[in-house]
Structures are given as structure tokens and as C-alpha cells.
Amino acid sequence: MTQETPESTDTEVKFPKRIKHRGRVFATIYGKSKSYTSYRVAWTTAGRRMMKAFLRYGEAKRHADGLVKDLAKGSQVTALTAGQARDALAALERLQTFYQASGRRVSLLAGISEYCEAASKLHGRTLGEAVEGYLRTVASVKRKDIKEAVEEFIAADEPRTKAGEGKRAQLSAKYAYNREIQLRRFASTFPNTAVCDLSKEHLDAFIASLGELKSKSRNRRAATSAKSRNHYRAAVRQFLQWAVRKDYLSATHRLLEADAMRPERANNGEVAFYMPNELRALLETADETLRPLLAIGGLAGLRTAELLRLDWADVWRVPGHIEVTAGKSKTRQRRLVEICPALAAWLHPFRAFKGGKLWDSHEITFQRCFSELCEQADVARKANGLRHAFCTYHFALHANENLTAAQAGNSPAMIHAHYKGLATKAEAVKWFKVKPSKSGKNVIPLPVVSREKAH
Fold it and tell me: What are 365-404's pLDDT values in tens digits?
């Protein structure tokens, strides 16, 4: 400056000089001293005392006058340092650019507040990492109502229940039917809810609701068993895995970590099996279509589903053994089951049958006929009683869970856990000596006809 104003020198100024506006002091200028070699302007804004130094009094006075004008208007801009002011201006420019690109207006305060809230939940991870993770998972998820998704899942799996010519279906129709019931109950529990909105609390509530299921035959509620609840868990687990593949659920959903989804250890119920005299009564009362099936079930231990898939060629193909092929075994693993002398005697009248299924009707028909047979023979029907009997007596006779497991197509641990100590060796000997009576030699087998035709 070529000229100094009257206040550009401090020769006649009394320090500290208070700068007022309408009688109110907003800033104070301090002069030089032995401790300070510059002029200092002090003011208070936003509860903070601020100070700035100048080499010349004129500069300090001009700065103080400008401060007073801003402070008098209530502005808090003076609270910013030079660096903070630069950052604020740069941030505002970024927000303006964002507005021009997206059409969304965001204030500086709103942007910083949202950032701080998000960062506090990320436990050290950056906001960018969180966004990238979101875009890889949640952002690609499609909203789908649970009921609609369950029906789509059922329809998608239906082709697997159909078997090609001479082949076995990939999925048991009976298993698929039971799973449909379970998943439809699951869907009905949460109406108008999207799959992606499911939470662990939803799964906990559903499994808890299985503690009581209304009986169709009686107007009461009966608790489901631990085994049944585990079946529901398995069905829900398969559905959720499918939902991830269909992008109806995030791959990182963690729903299976719900407390209620942990499998329960079911207490082993009492294994019901037939006695040797009951087996004899059933076999001697049965007609020619049921007798070979019951003989094989009780003396070779095949499962009902395996029996109904069995062909006469499987009985005679390997001498002294019944071949359960991989396509007919529940475990889809081939095994050979020894034909004991008693079973050979019951099968002898059927040597003429070289091919064709032992049972060519539906499983429901077989179960109905077997129930009628139990009534005729005055024998109480027992669930899986023939297979349970075979495993029980075979283990009691040989005391070798590995051998029994190999014959039954099961695991040694399962044999040991369910069939150990249920029968004596003497009882087992009687079971495997149940042969046709002498009068049975005169019985001539009739041609096997369809049960549906017979009824």
C-alpha cells in the first residue's frame, strides 16, 4: 500500500483494542510485547476461542473488522481453520457434482452423518469394501414371495421324480410328496413375505411352531417328534440353497446359523419287530403274490421300497444271493444279500419265474394288502417290522455289526445303535429256521397278477 490509513500504526492505539458492533465486543486486538512479536486478533465462535497473528497492525485491524461483521450476523464460518475451510469448499464441490450426475441433493452435514454412522458399523472395514460386497450379493437379489418361490421349487424338482424306461427316478416320489407338505407349511407361516426378507428369527419361530401340529383325524394338536422336526429342517435347508442359486436370497444370508436350525438328537424309540411264530403265521396265511415279498423282507432284510423295485431276475441272477442293484438300492450302491436255507425254501416254488417284477402295483396297494393280511393272520402290524426283525436277529446270531450292515445296506454304527441286545442268539436261530411246513410242498404257485386287477 502506498498510503497508510490513520489506523495503520499503533503509536496512538491503546491495547488491547476491542472491536465492537452496536456496543457489543466481538473481537480483541492485542499489541506486540516482549513475549509476542506480532499483533494478535482473538475472537470466540461456536464456544471456541480463536486467535490469529499479523505482522502489521493494519492487517490485524482489517481482519478484525471483517470478523465483527460475520460474527454479528451469527455466522460460524470464522470457527474454521484455513485447512478446514478448504476441505469444506472441496466437499461442497463434490456434492454439487454428485447432484448434477444423480439429481439427488445431499447436504454436507447429511453426507458426513451417514458416513460416520455406516463406518461405525463396519468394524475397521472401509465403506468402499462394504459397497463392493453389497453389490456382489444383496444388490443382485430378486424379491420373490416365499409362497411363489416354494411352488417354483416344487415344480423345478418334479422332473426328477420321473424315471426313464428301465431306470430309477433321481428323486423318490414319496420323498418329494412329503417335502412338498413341509415346505408349503413353511410358506404359509409367513404370508406376504419375500425370501430375501427372511431372518433367523423367522426360522426360529417356524421350528418352534412345529411343537404342535393339528391332527387331521382329530380336533387336537399333537407335538411332532425330534426326527420329524429334523426332516423339516432338511427341507427348509434345501429350499434356501435353491433360493441362493435363483438369486432370491443372498449367498451370505447366514439363516442356517439360526439356533432352531441345529439338528436335534432324537431319542431312539423302541424298535418293534416280529417274532418267529408271527413270521410263520404271515407267510402261511399270505397268497402267492405276497409270500415271496414277505419272505425276502423278513429273511433278507430288504427295505419295502427295494422289495417293490425287485425283479425275479435279481433273485436268481447270482446263485445263493439276491442282487440289489444300485438302481434299486436306497443308498444307490449295489449289494448282494445271502439267501439263507429258510428263504431258499420259501422261494423254491417260484423257480419258474425268470423275469418280471415281484410286485407290479402301487406301494399303497401293497400296504393295504399287508394290513389285511395281518388281520387275517391275527398278527399286530409293526412299522418296518420285517426289516427290523432281520437286522435284530442277524446281529444277535452273528454278533458282527459289519456283516449285518453289509447285508442290510446300512452303516455299522446304525446297526449297533438300534439293534444291539434286542434278541438272544437262540431266538435268532428260530427266526432263520422258519421254513414252509411239510404240507406246503403240495402248494402250486399261481401266476402272479396285478393287485389292481385282482381288486
Answer: 999 999 999 999 999 999 899 999 999 999 999 999 999 9
φ/ψ (deg, to 5) at 338: -65, 135
Q: Strand pairing of 48-54 and 213-214?
A: unpaired
Residue 401's identity, in one-letter code, is: E
Confidence of residue 93 (pLDDT cuts 50, 70, 90): confident
How far from 45 is each of 51, 67, 361, CA to CA, in Å? 11, 10, 93
Element (H, E) at 52: strand 48-54
CB 167 within 8 A of CB 327: yes
Sequential DSSP letters for 320-343: TEEEE-TTTSTTS--EEEE--HHH
pLDDT of residue 21: 78
The superfamily CATH assigns to domain 276-454 is Intergrase catalytic core (1.10.443.10)
pTM of the entire structure?
Answer: 0.56
Is residue 420 left, alpha or beta, with left meaning phi > 0 and alpha meaning psi from -120 to 50?
beta
Running DSSP on this structure, what letter comes out for residue 16?
A: S
Give the start-to-end residue ranges of the domains of the chain.
6-79, 83-136, 146-261, 276-454
Q: Tens of pLDDT along 279-324?
A: 999 999 999 999 999 999 999 999 998 999 999 999 999 999 999 9
Question: CA of 423: how far to CAs of 20, 397, 399, in Å?
Answer: 108, 9, 11
The answer to whether 35 and 50 are in contact (CB under 8 A) is no
How many Cα atoms sit within 13 Å of 360 on the Cβ side?
Answer: 12
- CATH 3.30.1490 corresponds to the domain 146-261: no
Closest CA to 277 of 95, 127, 154, 437: 437
Q: How far is CA 72 from CA 23, 42, 63, 189, in A?
A: 11, 15, 14, 64
Q: Whose CA is closest to 445, among 329, 339, 358?
A: 358
Are 415 and 404 within 8 A, CB to CB? yes
User: In DSSP terms, which residues pair with 20 in a beta bridge?
Assistant: 25
Give the angle subtended at the CA of 6 by the CAs of 3 and 10, to the nearest 5°: 105
Q: How many residues make up the chain in this entry?
A: 455
Name the pLDDT band for 138 (thresholds 50, 70, 90): low
Which residue, 346, 357, 348, is CA-closest to 297? 346
Q: To 10 degrees, the CA torsion angle through 360, 362, 367, 370? A: -20
Number of neighbouring beta carbons within 10 Å of residue 122 = 11
Long-range contacts for 29-38 (Cβ within 8 Å, ≥24 apart)? 29/57, 29/60, 29/61, 29/64, 31/57
**Residue carrying the nine cell digits 399270505:** 286
